[in-house]
Amino acid sequence: MLVTFSSKAGADVLMLSQHAKPLLKIIGKLNGPELETRGVWMPEQLGDAIALLEAAIAQEKTTHPDEDPDEPIHPLAQPVSLRQRSFTLLDLFRRAQQKKLPVLWEASSAW
Questions:
Q1: Rounded average pLDDT over 33-39
Q2: Is residue 70 part of a domain?
Q3: N or C: lower Cβ tally within 10 Å for the chain?
Q4: pTM, entire model
């Protein structure tokens, strides 16, 4: 399933549901295992959403305990961090907050 985050403040951000669910859970928009069809962050809610995402990014560990720090890892074998995954969504949140616009999200089929 494809999740589209949109706002008049910037370009749409597209994510597969498997990648969007952890972000929505961190922000408090996902209560169970199932993804709702759509949702919205009003401008006054964006500050809290940004703070929650930034706190989760700060707590994320950058290395895995089973990895050898001296052995190089091929770039394609490295996992995508929460910081990387949420970068464009955080940018959209910040732009929408500055312009006092809502951010909408909608889950739909992949094609």
A1: 84
A2: no
A3: C
A4: 0.82
